[in-house]
Amino acid sequence: MRNRALITGVTGQDGFYLAEELFRCGYQVTGLVRGQRNPMVPALRRQLPDLDIVHGDLLDQGSLITAVDAVQPDEVYNLGALSFVPSSWQQPMLTSETTGLGPLRMLEAIRVVSGSNGSTSSQPGIRFYQASTFEMFGQVSSSPQDEMTPFHPRSPYATAKAHGHYTTQNYRESYGMFAVSGIMFNHESPRRSEEFMTRKVSVAVARIALGLDQELRLGNLCAQRDWGYAGDYVTAMRTMLQADRAEDYVIGTGAIHSVRDLVRIAFDCVCLDWEKYVIVDNDLLRPDAGVLCGDARKARQRLGWSPLTSFEQLVSSMVEADLHRLSAAPAHDRRSRR
After folding, report:
1. DSSP readout, 196-228?
2. Active-site positions?
3. What is the pLDDT of residues 284-314, one digit of tens each?
């Protein structure tokens, strides 16, 4: 029997890489998508032809119960969320409902379908993964951060994620469910949405190299982050659900790089001097949250997980992918910033 997995947020960066990872491991994979006419589904079917689709909405408890009952998954990966932090300030209620209460609704759906009654049976039933985030740490006073570092969320997104994180712990402890959270630090790829800073850089560098733009405006070049490759991080997600014991894990590279490092490496990929093209825009400056760096020793020791892709390889892959995409696009599409 093939293992069956259900993924929410399958149309996003992480959902796509996770589906690929699970297919490689022989799974039958179903993606949960919202809306019968979701515009992303046709492209998803072309890229992942073996992916099954089920309709459901993290805002609708009944639809999740129906989806879980129909799929009968062995594993559920809850990656669905409103994940762009700045937007959470414009949509705090929707962020709370989707990102915060969405995990609760999915856990309830699993509990209802599996008939969990609070016992701590040795049979784990449906295993559940919650995508938590380093944003829950907020304004940090010490670095690196591990599983024992206190949370101090400082955005509606981070607050909602903390709710989902603690809900996952609660269902694990109260119902004996195999439910875990991965506290993921920044993980990027060529599939990252363009509103995120790393992709903003890779797209701008490709456009400048092709003569389509002349400058890149950024805020604080000294800001430091722990950036890893999304393809490596979904392996950690899968591995957490294969463990003998349900535990939460911090997933990060343990290495920090500045925005200046990111920009320099990206421009080096196209043999250009970044200082000739980058403009520091004061309107883009944001308060610095301190040094955010993941201490993934627990994951290395208990899961045998470690990142395989270097920061330089990651940045290079993103620039090369955008160069290829823009070079292959029709002329009128290349002139557009989108």
Report:
1. SHHHHHHHHHHHHHTTS-S-EEES-TT-EE--E
2. 133, 135, 157
3. 877 666 789 999 999 999 999 999 999 999 9
